[in-house]
Specification:
The complex is a heterodimer of chains A (307) and B (169). Chain A is mainly alpha-helical and 307 residues long. Chain A starts with a helix and ends with a helix. Chain A is built from 13 helices and no strands. In chain A, α9 runs antiparallel to α11. Chain A is globular and about 60 Å long. Chain B has one domain: Rossmann fold (3-Layer(aba) Sandwich), CATH 3.40.50. Chain B has 6 helices and 7 strands; from the N terminus they run αβαβββαβαββαα. In chain B, the strands form 2 sheets. A 5-stranded parallel sheet of chain B has the order 2-1-3-5-7, sandwiched between helices. In chain B, strands 4-6 form a two-stranded antiparallel ribbon. Classes of the chains: A mainly alpha (307), B alpha/beta (169). At the A-B interface, α3 of A face α1 of B. Bound molecules: iron/sulfur cluster. The site of iron/sulfur cluster (SF4) has 13 residues of chain B, from α2 and α4.
């Protein structure tokens, strides 16, 4: 791949600009669905775009912080993590731009970068709300990260490869949502934990700790964090639906399957109330991890021909 | 770099910026001593019946994220410092909407020993919404008036600069 095409794929299509627009669209879809479930009209289609442009046009306040370089650098690192993760997943149903054996692990860690950056951002400011938000965000990472990884390893083990592209092809005629239902549900809920959607929004609980780790961010920094989160939504949903819903080949299946996953996530969002942070951790380690480990064991036995 | 205001791209960027500002308004709500009646009306404005999210209006927790500050109630002596601080924490451009008769003039609490006065004696207010408490329709109307005023290209409704100086001093 020469430099020009790699720049094109990084900045315009399928990562970069296209991904940005997709992120805005998915963000709007999520908000609109939540509004409809609550019997509201909901935001207009350009709402996330207007929000982001407005934030970019606003003043960025530098609060009393420990390390200004970190304050300005963290949003950029978070955004680049999400953009880089997009290169390894079958976005819009096209084959991943980049693929190598083991890229599943790299992608999952790139997706965690956003949470780590938010945690550091909260720790970096001297606001007590950000500090509590950061502590909760980092506690939550330890809760959902392992089950989420294990849930994605289920299809990977069955396909016999840790390469997203290969698993995507293998999933075409194996619907893992049916053969590994536990893994599917846990991957779905893990994704919601990763994105800090309700019921796992304790790190940014508005009613208790203002806005969590991002309380002190205004203007550009906040905008970049929001974009990174929208991108992570798209990449995460792509990953889960590629693994569990029969692979993503072509643009139409991509939109049908990912929007179906988003629909499911929205239902969980409006149905469930916020969990306390100890409940979140307890839920993941007492039920999530055990269940997904059991399923992984069954997969391994089946793979070895023992079942 | 020398930026000429008449260049096309400058105009386009200004247009886009103005459009985004008008269509995405995040509010932070501050109770400076209200009896809670106005606060309940503000909550009613956010509920499905009136749903201001269709205009892009959203309630935010942090003043750092907000564009408009909705103040309810007269400014008590205790709340005055906090109101100023909340206002100072908001990034520019910021607007203040004062909701309820109390925040406009002191209302029924006017002259109380613990009340400093109306909101515009402490911070510059852009829109006054009278009523005790104002109905959600009135609150929406007040915010839309602020928006239409901004849309006509005016920087902001007339401010009483001398009042800020008196308030901060
Ligand atoms: S205007 Fe009326 S409802 Fe509002 S704070 Fe004053 S007394 Fe209460």
């Amino acid at each position: 791949m020469n430099t020009l095409t790699s720049f094109f794929s990084l900045l315009i299509f399928p990562a970069g600009l296209t991904l940005l627009l997709a992120g805005m669209f998915y963000d709007w879809f999520d908000r609109k669905l939540v509004a409809r479930f609550q019997n509201r009209v909901g935001p207009r289609w350009f709402q996330p775009i207007a929000d982001v442009i407005k934030l970019f046009a606003k003043e960025q306040i530098t609060p009393g912080i420990k390390n200004p370089a970190l304050f300005f650098g963290l949003p950029i690192v978070a955004l680049s993590g999400a953009l880089a993760a997009a290169l390894y997943v079958p976005l819009l149903g096209f084959a991943p731009v980049h693929s190598f054996p083991g890229d599943l692990i790299v992608t999952i860690y790139l997706l965690s970068l956003l949470t780590i950056c938010m945690g550091l951002a909260g720790w970096n400011t001297s606001s007590r709300f950000s500090l509590i938000g950061a502590t909760r965000a980092l506690t939550q990472v330890f809760a959902y990260e392992a089950p989420f990884l294990l849930a994605l390893l289920g299809p990977a083990m069955a396909a016999g490869s840790w390469q997203i592209d290969v698993i995507n092809d293998y999933a075409r005629d194996h619907w893992f949502a049916i053969s590994q239902p536990v893994g599917f549900i846990i991957a779905l809920i893990g994704l919601m934990g990763k994105l800090e959607l309700p019921p796992f929004d304790a790190p940014e609980a508005e009613t208790e700790i203002v806005a969590g780790a991002l309380t002190e961010y205004s203007g550009r920094g906040l905008a970049i964090f929001r974009i990174a989160k929208a991108l992570e939504l798209v990449v995460g949903i792509t990953l889960v639906s590629a693994f569990y819903l029969g692979g993503l080949q072509g643009v139409v299946p991509f939109f049908v399957k990912t929007l179906a996953v988003l629909f499911l996530m929205t239902i969980f969002q409006v149905l469930l109330t916020r969990l306390r942070i100890d409940q979140t951790v307890g839920l993941w380690w007492r039920f999530g991890t055990i269940l997904v480990l059991a399923q992984l064991l069954i997969t391994i036995l089946w793979k070895g021909g023992l079942l | 770099m020398n930026i000429n205001n008449n260049q096309l791209w400058v105009k386009v960027i200004k247009k886009v910026r103005a459009w985004a500002r008008l269509n995405s308004i995040w509010a932070v709500h501050f109770n400076s001593g209200s009896c809670n009646g106005c606060d309940i009306e503000i909550l009613a404005t956010l509920t499905p019946r009136y749903d201001v999210e269709r205009f892009g209006i959203k309630l935010e927790g942090s003043p750092r994220h907000a564009d408009i500050l909705i103040v309810t109630g007269p400014v008590t002596r205790q709340a005055r410092e906090r109101l100023l601080r909340t206002y100072e924490q908001m990034p520019e451009p910021k607007f203040v909407v004062s909701v309820g008769s109390c925040s406009v003039s002191g209302g029924v609490f006017h002259g109380c020993y613990n009340v400093g006065g109306s909101v515009d004696e402490v911070i510059p207010v852009d829109v006054f919404i009278p009523g005790c408490p104002p109905r959600p329709e009135a609150i929406i109307d007040g915010i839309i008036q602020l928006l239409t005023h901004l849309k006509d290209g005016n920087p902001r409704p007339a401010r009483k600069e001398q009042i800020i100086e008196r308030g901060v001093a």
